[in-house]
Inverse folding.
């Protein structure tokens, strides 16, 4: 079983839709959770960072973490064409003495159609 | 945007040639990382550095070496490039606090013919 599983999509939605992106993980040592957005031919850009179960909101974005189910989600409200990108989940925890190792999902490609 | 500059942004070279990619940061962050990104594999860690002259291997380090002689610069070298090393290479940085998020540069597209 891979440490982090992320549905690659592609996901296509109309403008204004609510988007739900998800990752599951198997390593209970993961304590820190991130979502990155990556536009074509650009580097990943940090969107959300959280280390506790529950919801964290930032504008149209909400990150949700359920450590008991080992499941994280990113919700995008009122989606815009400019949200079209690949979304990567990433996780970190104390692992083998290296406390800065990130494990990434493979990314979900999202297209928001005008 | 985090002050990270990768150079070159694009490079085409031939099998067997040495290649060096540079990552330069202006944030004075302690940690620097090199990743490669390939379809179907996502981002994979090649090497990382936790200080000047302090480096360690990631999960896909074979065929790569790194050096960090100054806080701001982290070099990735392919001693003898192979076609399997055709990829997009990203540099990332993070500060001293444990488990802080990493911030990425815009990548180098490397093609090895």
């Amino acid at each position: 079983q891979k440490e982090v599983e992320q549905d690659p999509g592609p996901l296509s939605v109309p403008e204004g839709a609510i988007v739900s992106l998800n990752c599951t993980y198997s390593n209970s040592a993961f304590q820190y959770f991130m979502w990155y957005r990556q536009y074509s031919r650009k580097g990943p850009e940090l969107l959300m960072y959280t280390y506790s179960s529950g919801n964290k909101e930032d504008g149209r974005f909400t990150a949700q973490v359920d450590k008991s189910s080992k499941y994280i989600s990113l919700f995008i409200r009122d989606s815009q064409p400019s949200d079209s990108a690949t979304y990567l989940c990433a996780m970190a925890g104390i692992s083998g003495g290296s406390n800065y190792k990130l494990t990434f999902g493979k990314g979900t490609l999202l297209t928001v159609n005008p | 945007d985090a002050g990270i500059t990768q150079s070159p942004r694009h490079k085409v070279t031939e099998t067997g040639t040495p290649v060096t990619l540079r990552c330069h940061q202006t944030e004075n962050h302690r940690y620097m990382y090199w990743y490669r990104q390939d379809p179907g594999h996502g981002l994979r860690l090649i090497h990382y550095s936790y200080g000047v002259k302090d480096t360690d291997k990631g999960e896909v380090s074979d065929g790569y070496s790194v050096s960090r002689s100054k806080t701001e610069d982290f070099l990735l070298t392919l001693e003898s490039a192979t076609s399997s090393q055709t990829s997009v290479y990203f540099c990332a940085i993070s500060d001293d606090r444990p488990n802080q998020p990493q911030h990425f540069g815009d990548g180098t597209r490397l093609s090895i013919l």
Q: What stands out?
A: Chain B touches chain A at residues 4, 31, 40-43, 45, 48, 50, 56, 90, 94, 98-107, 109 (CB under 8 Å). Chain B has no helices and eleven strands. The first strand of chain B starts at residue 4 and ends at 7. Chain B has a mean pLDDT of 93.
